[in-house]
Design goal:
- By secondary structure, the protein is an alpha/beta fold.
- The protein has three domains: 52 residues, 3-methyladenine DNA Glycosylase II, Chain A, domain 3 (Orthogonal Bundle), CATH 1.10.15; 250 residues, Alpha-Beta Barrel (TIM Barrel), CATH 3.20.20; 120 residues, Rossmann fold, CATH 3.40.50.
- The strands form four sheets. It has an eight-stranded parallel beta sheet, with helices on one face. The chain has a five-stranded mixed beta sheet with strand order 13-15-14-16-17, with helices on both faces. It has a two-stranded antiparallel ribbon with strand order 1-2.
- Strand 8, helix 7 and strand 9 form a beta-alpha-beta unit.
- Helix 4 runs parallel beside helix 5, helix 6 packs parallel to helix 7 and helix 10 packs parallel to helix 11.
C-alpha cells in the first residue's frame, strides 16, 4: 500500500528548511510513511511530486467526507483489519431512514426528537450523524421538499436515496450546501449518476447485487475522476452482509484492490422487522466493518449502546483518553473547600468529578498528568509516586487558593502517603476511599457540608 520513507524522500525538494516541523526532508519523509505527517506541511513540494505522493500515500480505503460544517463526518481511511494492529480512524456513522412520503409535521416532530439524542460521556458529545431520505413514490417535488427541510432545519447530514437521477438532481441541487451523499449509482444509471456527482462535487454511493458487480462500476466512476465513493454490495441477509464486509476490507487492505478501496453503507433497517434486531445487526457492523449504518428509527435504548460501542472501538488503544492537567473547580469552591487529587485518565476524571458534583460539596480537584493511566496503574508504573505528586502540588498553585493545606489522595495510592508527608511537610495528607462512589460519604464524614 504506500511508499517507503526513502521512496517518498526522493520526491521531496530536499531543502531541509525545517518549516514542516522536523529538521530534515528525510525525517519528514519517514513521518509521512508512518502516517505521522501530512503532505501539506511541506511548503515547497512541486505539483508533480504532490500528485504522485498523494496517490501513492492514499490509504487503501479512501476517506470520504459527507456533510459540511461542524457536523460533517468522514468515513473510510482505514489501514488495518483489526484495531489492535494500530487503530481504527473514522467512526461508523449512524443514521436513520425516512420516506419521502412522510407528512411534514411528522418529519418536523421526528427531527426534533432525534436531535435530542445527544449524550455526554468522558467529555465527548455522542450523537447520530445523518438522515437517509428515500424516494418512495417518484414524486420529485415531495422528495425535494423533505430534503430541504432536513437540510435547513436540522443539524443532521443527508443521504439522498433515489435511483432516478432526475428526482435526485433537484433535491441535490437544493441541498448542495449540506454536501449530501447521493445514493446510488447502479449498472443502469452509472453514467448519469457519475456525471451528476462530478458536476456537483458530491460523494456518490455505488450499489450492486454483489461484490463482483461493484468492481466494474467503481472502475468506471474512478475513470471519470470520481474518488469519493461509498459501496453497497446489496447484501440484505446477516451472514452474507458480514462476509461481504470482511471481503471488501480484506480485498482493499491485503490484496490492494483499489476498486474496492472505499467505505461502505449498510441497511439494517431493510434486514429486520423490529428495531431490536436492527440494533443487533448494527452492533456487529460497527467493528466489522460498516462505515455507515442506517436504522429505521432512533430510540435511546438502542442508540446509546451503539454510540458507546462505537466510542470504545474507535478509541486508539495505544493512546488512552486523557483530560488536561490542572486545577478543576467543582461546585464553586472557596478557600475552605477540600482538595482532592487523581490522574488524568478520562474515565477516572469523569467518575471522580461526577461523584464530587453529586455530593454538592464545593471542592478543588487536582488532575495530574500520568499519561492517561488510572490511579492504580499509574502508581504501579511510578507515574503517581510521592515525589511526582508533591512536585505537581507545589507547582500547580493550589496552595494560594486554600486556607488549610489538606489534600485527599486516592485510597489505591495510600502507599505514597509517607513520602508525600516528607515532601509536603506543610500539608496534611488524608487517604481517601478506594471507590469513587464513597467520596460523597467520605467528605460528609470529614465535616464538609453540601452547598
Amino acid at each position: 500500500m504506500g511508499l517507503t520513507g526513502i521512496q517518498i524522500f526522493k520526491l521531496l525538494p530536499k531543502t531541509n528548511c525545517g518549516e514542516c516541523g522536523v529538521p530534515t526532508c528525510l525525517a519528514f519523509a519517514m513521518n509521512l510513511a508512518a502516517g505521522k505527517a501530512e503532505l501539506d506541511q511541506c511548503p515547497y513540494i512541486s505539483d508533480e511530486a504532490r500528485e504522485k505522493l498523494a496517490e501513492a500515500s492514499a490509504p487503501p480505503i479512501r476517506p470520504v467526507q459527507i456533510g459540511a460544517g461542524v457536523r460533517a463526518f468522514k468515513v473510510g481511511g482505514e489501514t488495518v483489519m483489526f484495531r489492535h494492529e494500530k487503530t481504527f480512524y473514522n467512526p461508523t456513522a449512524i443514521g436513520v431512514l425516512v420516506g419521502s412520503d412522510i407528512d411534514m409535521d411528522t418529519l418536523d416532530r421526528k427531527l426534533k426528537e432525534w436531535n435530542a439524542f445527544q449524550y455526554e460521556r468522558v467529555g465527548l458529545n455522542l450523537r447520530p450523524e445523518f438522515v437517509a431520505l428515500k424516494d418512495v413514490d417518484g414524486d420529485a417535488n415531495k422528495f425535494k421538499a423533505a430534503a430541504e427541510k432536513i437540510a435547513r432545519e436540522s443539524e443532521f447530514c443527508l443521504v439522498l436515496m433515489s435511483e432516478k437521477p432526475d428526482v435526485l438532481k433537484e433535491a441535490a441541487a437544493a441541498c448542495s450546501f449540506k454536501r449530501p451523499l447521493l445514493y446510488a449509482a447502479t449498472k443502469d444509471n452509472v453514467d448519469e449518476m457519475g456525471n451528476m456527482a462530478k458536476e456537483m462535487k458530491l460523494p456518490l454511493a455505488v450499489k450492486a447485487e454483489n461484490i463482483e458487480g461493484l468492481i466494474p462500476l467503481t472502475e468506471k466512476l474512478t475513470g471519470m475522476g470520481l474518488k469519493e465513493l461509498v459501496l453497497d454490495p446489496g447484501s440484505r441477509e446477516m451472514k452474507q452482509l458480514f462476509q461481504d464486509m470482511v471481503a471488501i476490507r480484506r480485498a482493499a487492505l491485503k490484496a490492494g484492490n483499489r476498486a474496492l478501496g472505499f467505505p461502505t453503507i449498510t441497511f439494517p433497517c431493510e434486514m429486520a422487522s423490529n428495531l431490536d434486531i436492527e440494533t443487533m445487526i448494527a452492533a456487529m457492523l460497527i467493528p466489522k466493518y460498516g462505515s455507515m449504518v442506517v436504522l429505521s428509527d432512533f430510540r435511546g435504548e438502542s442508540l446509546f449502546p451503539l454510540l458507546v460501542e462505537r466510542l470504545n472501538i474507535f478509541t486508539d488503544p495505544q493512546r488512552p483518553m486523557t483530560v488536561t492537567e490542572g486545577i478543576y473547580e467543582i461546585n464553586s469552591p472557596d478557600e475552605n473547600s477540600p482538595v482532592l487529587i487523581t490522574t488524568n485518565f478520562s474515565l477516572t476524571y469523569f467518575i471522580v468529578s461526577g461523584e464530587i458534583e453529586g455530593s454538592r460539596v464545593p471542592s478543588w480537584l487536582l488532575i495530574m498528568d500520568t499519561e492517561g493511566l488510572s490511579v492504580m496503574t499509574a502508581w504501579a508504573a511510578g507515574k503517581f509516586s510521592g515525589d511526582l505528586v508533591a512536585s505537581f502540588v507545589k507547582k500547580c498553585g493550589i496552595a494560594e487558593k486554600v486556607a488549610k493545606k489538606r489534600i485527599i489522595i486516592p485510597g489505591y495510592a495510600a502507599a505514597i502517603a509517607g513520602e508525600l508527608e516528607d515532601e509536603l511537610p506543610d500539608w496534611e495528607i488524608v487517604i481517601g476511599p478506594r471507590d469513587a462512589s464513597l467520596i460523597p460519604k467520605f467528605l460528609r464524614e470529614m465535616g464538609y457540608q453540601p452547598k
